User: Fold this.
Amino acid sequence: MVDRLDPWTVGRFNVEVDGVLIGGVRKAKIPGSSTEESGTNSNSWGQTRRGDLQMDLNMERWTQRLLNWNEEIQNDEDSAYKEIEVTLLNKDDGAAEWVWTFHDAWLKGFQPPLLGEVDEDGEGKQAIYSATFAYDSLDSEEA
Assistant:
């Protein structure tokens, strides 16, 4: 890998679910983390907490997939827990730069698109689902 001094850009990324490359992901918000102090001793730290993975998804590619995934969760099926991998890609050649792997992830919730929205030209906006995914653990590493 070539050493880079310029900053990475966030416009290109891939998402895989259980090793399958998934299209139709418009945005992915990688969760941050926070650790709280426990007690009065400043050297004593509490549990680290991470937020949820959030994605905006094209409706035409994701509607049935989300409904099926939600049904797996409601039925408490083992298949409801999946591995989600989000890979940041180099803007120049598309090579992987950084990978976040969400282990035993599940669909926590989703919002269907808001109908009737139009852009500045009066055209209908693209139908987008907003989905939230929880997970048991997260690995983050340079590719």
The chain has one domain: 13-31+51-142. The first strand starts at residue 13 and ends at 17. The beta strands are 13-17, 20-22, 25-29, 33-37, 45-50, 53-58, 82-89, 96-111, 128-134, 137-142.
